[in-house]
Amino acid sequence: MTDQTTLEQEMAAEQRHLDRVYARLAELRQSAARAEREGYRLAKVGNFGALVERDAMVFHAAQRRHLLDAEHEGLVFGRLDLRDRSVLHVGRLGVRGENAETLVVDWRAPAAAAFYQATPAQPLGVVRRRTIQSSAERVTRIEDDLLDPAAAPPEMPVVGDGALLATLSRATGRGMRDIVATIQREQDEAIRSPGSGVTIVSGGPGTGKTAVALHRAAYLLYSDRSRYAGGGILVVGPSTVFVEYIASVLPSLGEETATLHSLGSLFPGMSATRTDPPDVAAVKGSLRMRRVLERAARDAVPDGPEELRLLYRGQLLRLSRAELDTIRTRALPRGARRNEARRAGFDGIFAALWAQARKLGVPGLPEQRLFDDELVDRTEFREFLKAWWPRLHPRHVLGWLARPERLRAYAQGILSGAEIRVLTAAWRTLDRDGLTIADIALLDELDALLGQPMKPARRRRDPFQLAGGVRELSTFADRQRAERAAARERPADYRDYAHVVVDEAQDVSPMQWRMLGRRGRLASWTVVGDPAQTAWTGDPVELTRAREQALGRRKRHEFTLTTNYRNSAEIFAVAAAEIRTVHPDLPLPTAVRSTGVHPVELRVPATELAARTVEAVDALLAEVAGTVGVITPVPRRDEVACWLAHLDSPRLQVVTSLQAKGMEYDGVALVAPGEIRADPGSGVRTLYVALSRATQRLTTLDPLD
Ligand SMILES: Nc1ncnc2c1ncn2[C@@H]1O[C@H](COP(=O)(O)OP(=O)(O)OP(=O)(O)O)[C@@H](O)[C@H]1O
C-alpha cells in the first residue's frame, strides 16, 4: 500500500466520522427548533407553570442553536487513539449521539486535556494524536504524532508531518484566529490554570500570550459557566486597533459574557485613541497624579462666583470669597466626594447666612427652617448655589488642569518643574485634539474622587418595544425572557466582573492599574505581558506597587511561554539583535519556523522615502496572501497613510509603533525605524515590538539625511 493510499483511506475514515457528527448536528438543530415550537404549544395551556417552562425551553433552545451555528466550521479538529484502543474525537464543543455515546469531546473538558498535554516523554495513555483540518464539512488535511510507538498496533498508520507548522504557514487575516487545534503543552498549562487568584503569563513576542489569555477565558466559561457568564469577563487591550483584531477569536465567549475594551474606552461615554509621547505618558500615569487630582477635585470652580451678596428684609447679607472657600473646605473633609457633599456645602451656606442675619439683628427673622425656605424660593440664590457648587463631571475638572496656573498650583511640591512643563504643553491642545488614552485613567480617578453626579433618573429600556414605536403584545413568558435578556445587558460602568483579562500588561501605567483594580474587586485575573516590550518610562517601583494593589492578595499562578509561533526565525533574529543592545542577557523565545527569506533593510534618501515606501508596500501585497502592516513613528502616521491612500486594499493597515502592540501581519513595512529607536526612554523596546510583528516578510526603510 502506498503512502498516498494510506493517507486517502485515513482521510476517508475521518470524513465518515465528520459526516456522522454533522448529521447529528443537523438533528440537534432540528430538535432545538422543535423545542421552540413545543414551547409555544405549552403557552396555549395557559397556566403559570407551563408559561415558565415555555420560557425556559425557548430560551435554551435558541441559545443552543446559536452555539451550534457559531462553532459549525472546523467543528472536529482532533483525534486521540488511546492505549486501551478507544478513540476520542476532540472539537469546539461536545456532541453526543442519539444513544448518548460521545461523538466529540469539548476541547475544554478534562478528557481532552491529553490532546494538548501528551508528549512522547509523557504520552498520558495516548498512542497517536491526530490533528484534523476541515473546511465546509470536508476533511482537508490530517497530521499525526506517534507518541507511544511501543504501544502502537502494527497496522496503525501515521501520516503528515506537523500540524503546528502547517497551521503557522497559513495567511493572516484581519482578525486573529483561534488556536484550539494546535495549543501547545506549555500554553495548555496556562489555559487550564485554576480559576481563582491571578494567572500571570509572560513570554517574548509571538509566544501566544494573547491567544492563551482568550482561550483561558473560554476555558473558564466552560468550567464554571454560571460564575463567569453571570459576573462577566472583562478583556482589556492596549488600543482600539488591537481590540478589533482580537474581537472575533472565540465566538463561544459570546457578546453577553465577554466585554472587550481598550484602555482608552474603559470610562463610560468616552473613547480615546490618541497616544502620548513616553515622557508625557510617564507623568500622566504616575501615582503622584492622584494627589494632583485630589487638589483639583477640592478646588473652587474656575470663573465661579467671587462672593455672595443678598438683600434680605432690607439688610445686605454677604459672604466673601474667603468665607465661601472656608465653607467649601469644611463641607469636604478628607475622603468626602465632591458631588456627594453638595448638600453639605449648601447647608454651610444657609448656616452662615442665618448666623449673619442674626448677628445683624434683621427685624422679624424667622426660625432657620423658614429662613432657608425663603432663600430657596429666590431664583438668584438658587443660581448662585448652582454656579458655586455645580455637579461636576470628571471632564470638567480635567479641563481645569489644562489651565497652566491651576496645574502649577495643584502640582506644586508633587511634580517637578520639568514635569509640570511637560503636562502644560501636552494639555495646551486638549480642547482641540481631545483626550489621550492616558487621560482616560485620570478621568476615572476623578470620577472616584468626585462621586456620582446625581443624574436625572434614566428611563429603563422597555424590552417589549418594537421598531416604529409599537409596543409588542406579549405573553407572560415573553416578558420574563425579555426581562432576563435586559438584565444580562451590563450597565456602562459595570464593575463587578467575575474575571478580568489584561493583555499587553507591560504597558499598563500605575494610574491605569488603579482604573482596572476598580473593575476587578470581585474578580479573578489573567494578566499577560512581556516586560521587554514595555513603552513605560516612569518609575518601575511605582508600577509594581500599583499593579500589586490592583491584584490584591490573591494567589499568583505564574507561567512562562518560550516558543515564538509568529515570526519566521529570520525575522525574529533581527528583532532579537535589536533588544539585545539594551538587554544583552534577556532570555528570548525560540522561533520555530524558518522561511529562508531574510528581512530587507533599505536605506533611502529622505526625498525618496514616500516613493520607496509605496514600492515596498506594493511588493509586500504581491508577495503575501494575508495582511500587510505599515508601521510608522507616531508623528508620521498620517503622512504615511496619505502616501498609501491610493492602494486602497482591505489587506493593508497603517499603524503607529504604539498601535502595533499585540498586532500581527504577514508582511510588514517599517518606516523610519531609526526615529523610533531615537526615543531615549523606550525607543529600542518599541522598535523591538515593531520588528516582531511580521509572520513572513519584513522590509525596513530608513531615510538618510
Ligand atoms: N499553539 C499555537 N498554534 C498555532 N498558532 C499559534 C499557537 N500559539 C500561538 N500561535 C499564533 O502565534 C501568533 C502570536 O500569538 P499571540 O499574538 O497570542 O502572541 P503574543 O505572545 O501575545 O505576542 P506579542 O507579545 O508579540 O503581542 C498568533 O498568530 C497565534 O495565532
TrEMBL record:
The keyword Mitochondrion does not apply. Residues 182-568 form the UvrD-like helicase ATP-binding domain. Keywords: ATP-binding, Helicase, Hydrolase, Nucleotide-binding. One of its GO terms (molecular function) is hydrolase activity. SUPFAM superfamilies: P-loop containing nucleoside triphosphate hydrolases. PROSITE patterns: UVRD_HELICASE_ATP_BIND. GO terms for biological process: recombinational repair. Gene3D superfamilies: P-loop containing nucleotide triphosphate hydrolases. ATP binds at residues 203-210. Pfam families: AAA_19. GO terms for cellular component: cytosol. InterPro entries: DNA_helicase_UvrD/REP, P-loop_NTPase, UvrD-like_ATP-bd. This is DNA helicase IV. It comes from Micromonospora pallida. The lineage of its organism: Bacteria, Bacillati, Actinomycetota, Actinomycetes, Micromonosporales.
